[in-house]
Every structure is written in structure tokens, then in C-alpha cells.
Design a protein that fits this description.
mainly beta
């Protein structure tokens, strides 16, 4: 009987023990002004998740997820102060919203309604990447509305910014749901026809350190939009049976260690996967990633036709991250739901143009669990 009572007492002790809480970053380190606008840090919670974001670039600074032991891991790379984002040393897009046209536009130009628009050539001096020299990642968004589990940012991308036509009125909502998902909803309208392709650039590392070679990845696609130098190739290239075919889950390192030409060109993943979709604009499973060390499993769902996958090969271990860590080579995975790159110049790619009277919408969901 004594042993039984001791066992019950031990169980009660475990049950009554305080649950771990995420170690939130200090919001004071994000209070500043950029271009005369106030910058701050917002914290939201929902389900078992907690998220911190700054209105400078709409950045996700921290995303806290419980691992298989119940301990919280901050699963996105970032910095502990706003100064490190504003005066970045290497990675400009860390955790940011990117656009108004994410990814590449070849020759830094496009033609619509008989008018050719010249954009900022911030990609090798030839193309446009993520909106130009000052895209959505480099501006201060309005904090439009906050609730306990959501924050809505607003930005008016004005006619002529970066060379783009029309006033683009953008709302972006981050929300944490009761099923342990981080959901992003974008909505935008315009007063002049222009291409729109907005996405987010979180760098995921589920063990709060180390590299991602052992992560088991799945991607629902059998082709990619390949690159030749700075140009996007058309039509898409089949990857069936190659090292980049992840329709059956297997370790990320299998591809990184291969001699497949498209992996070698980019020193890893930096490719748009053309998703296999069942229904246009339906929210469907695009990809997943599982870290055996932490037990964290993330599913990526979206209504978009493309998914840019990037394996952090341009980090070199010299740039500071959070918690005294460095940003490591192949130390993160990025899953950016989006339209296909260079769609403004590729009539056979999904239509990127938003017209007056229409509304651009885009949903991305990162759903977390453990196994």
C-alpha cells in the first residue's frame, strides 16, 4: 500500500508541476523609429503556440512550439534586437514579409496593357528580387488590429514604389489557432493593374540549433521552375526520380549530398516547386518537415500554386542569431508559399496580375505537432 501511495503521490507531483512557458524576447529591444515611423514587437498566443512579430517588415521574430518532451523551442531563426534587422550584416529577409512581387523578375521589367515598367535591378544588377531595393521587408507596417491570438498589419505600397504601377492596399494577418497552427492571410486591392505575389520568409530550425540534413521532408510536386543564371526557365523541369523528388518523404541531406545539377547550381535548395494541386484556390497540403531530434513535425498548407524551398546555404556561421547562437550553413529550411517566379513575364505561368475591382488573397498555414 505504501508503494502505491508513493506512486500516486509521484504522479500527482508531475501533474501539478508548472508547465514550461516560452522564454519571450524583451519587447523593449524592438522599440525604435525607422523612417519616422514607430517600430515595436507584438506577442500573440494560441493553442500551445506563441509568436512574436515586429512591424518592421512584418517580421516573425520568434515562434515558440513545444517539442516531444513538452519543452518550448523557438523554431524560427532571428535576432534579439531591432537594430540587427535594420542594420543587417548578411541576411536581409530573415523572417520578413516579402513582395509586392516575391521571388525573381527577370530583366527587372514587365509589360502590361502595352506599357513596359522598369523595376529596381537588385538581383545581380539584372533582375528584381523580392520587390527591389526596398520591398515589403524594409518598410514599417501599420499595426492595424491585435487580439489575443492574432495581429493584422497594413501597408499601402504606393504607385511608383520600386517601379511598380498602382497603389496596392495590403492587409496581412498572423493568427495562432487552437489546433496549433500559425496561419497567414493576405488580402490586397489596387487601383491599377499590377502583378502581386506576397509571401513570408521564416527560416525554420526545430531544434533551436544544428543543421537540417536529418530532417525528413515531403513536397507535393514533381517539377520545379529551374534557373539558368539569373533567368527563370520555362517550361517547368521534371524532377521525377531525381534527388529533388520528395513526393515520398526522406532526409533533406539526400539531396544536399547529391550531384544533381539543380542542387549543385544553387549549393542546395533554392527552388520553386510547382505544386500538384487538386482544386484551384483550395487550401491543400504542400509540404511537411520532421525533425527526429526534437520530434517536431510541421505541415505546410496553402492555396498557392508554388512553394519556394530554401536550405540556408548562404549563411556562413558568422552572423549572430538568438540565444548566443550563430546562423549556420544549411541550418534552416524555408517554405515560402507563392505564385511561380517571373510570372509577369511568362504567359504560360499562373497569372499574377491583380486588376482594379479584384481582391488578391493568399493563405499559408504552418501546422505543428510532435511524433
Amino acid at each position: 500500500m505504501k508503494h502505491i501511495l508513493l506512486s500516486v503521490a509521484a504522479l500527482l507531483s508531475v501533474a501539478c508541476a508548472p508547465k514550461p512557458e516560452p522564454a519571450l524576447l524583451d519587447g523593449k529591444n524592438f522599440e525604435t523609429e525607422v523612417d519616422g515611423a514607430k517600430v515595436s514587437l507584438v506577442t500573440i498566443k494560441g493553442g500551445k503556440l506563441a509568436l512574436q512579430a515586429t512591424n518592421f517588415g512584418g517580421r516573425v521574430v520568434s515562434l515558440f512550439v513545444p517539442d516531444k518532451t513538452g519543452e518550448y523551442k523557438d523554431v524560427v531563426l532571428g535576432h534579439e534586437t531591432i537594430d540587427e534587422y535594420v542594420h543587417y550584416t548578411k541576411e536581409r529577409y530573415l523572417g520578413a514579409c516579402v513582395g509586392p512581387v516575391a521571388n525573381r523578375i527577370t530583366n527587372a521589367s514587365f509589360t502590361v496593357d502595352g506599357v513596359t515598367y522598369q523595376l529596381e535591378a537588385n538581383h545581380g544588377g539584372k533582375g528584381t528580387l523580392h520587390g527591389g531595393f526596398k520591398g515589403l521587408d524594409s518598410v514599417v507596417w501599420d499595426i492595424w488590429e491585435t487580439t489575443g491570438n492574432s495581429v493584422t498589419f497594413h501597408y499601402l505600397h504606393k504607385d511608383g514604389e520600386g517601379g511598380f504601377p498602382g497603389n496596392l492596399d495590403i492587409f496581412m494577418t498572423y493568427s495562432l489557432t487552437q489546433d496549433d497552427s500559425f496561419r497567414i492571410d493576405y488580402k490586397a486591392t489596387t487601383d491599377k493593374t499590377r502583378p502581386v505575389n506576397i509571401t513570408n520568409h521564416p527560416y525554420f530550425n526545430f531544434s533551436q540549433g544544428g543543421t537540417i540534413e536529418n530532417y525528413v521532408m515531403y513536397i507535393n510536386a514533381d517539377s520545379i521552375t529551374a534557373m539558368d543564371g539569373l533567368d527563370i526557365l520555362s517550361p517547368p523541369v521534371s524532377i521525377v526520380g531525381t534527388a529533388m523528388d520528395y513526393r515520398t518523404p526522406h532526409p533533406v541531406g539526400d539531396a544536399l549530398e547529391s550531384d544533381y545539377v539543380h542542387i549543385q547550381r544553387g549549393r542546395g535548395f533554392d527552388h520553386n516547386y510547382c505544386l500538384n494541386r487538386k482544386e484551384a484556390k483550395a487550401i491543400e497540403l504542400a509540404a511537411s518537415a520532421y525533425d527526429p531530434a526534437s520530434g517536431i513535425f510541421m505541415e505546410v498548407l496553402t492555396d498557392q500554386p508554388g512553394l519556394q524551398v530554401y536550405s540556408g546555404q548562404y549563411f556562413n556561421g558568422k552572423e549572430n542569431g538568438k540565444y548566443g547562437s550563430k546562423l549556420l550553413y544549411h541550418g534552416s529550411l524555408t517554405f515560402e508559399t507563392q505564385n511561380w517566379p517571373d510570372s509577369p513575364n511568362k504567359p504560360d505561368f499562373p497569372d499574377p496580375y491583380l486588376k482594379p475591382g479584384q481582391t488578391y488573397t493568399h493563405t499559408c498555414i504552418y501546422h505543428f505537432s510532435t511524433k
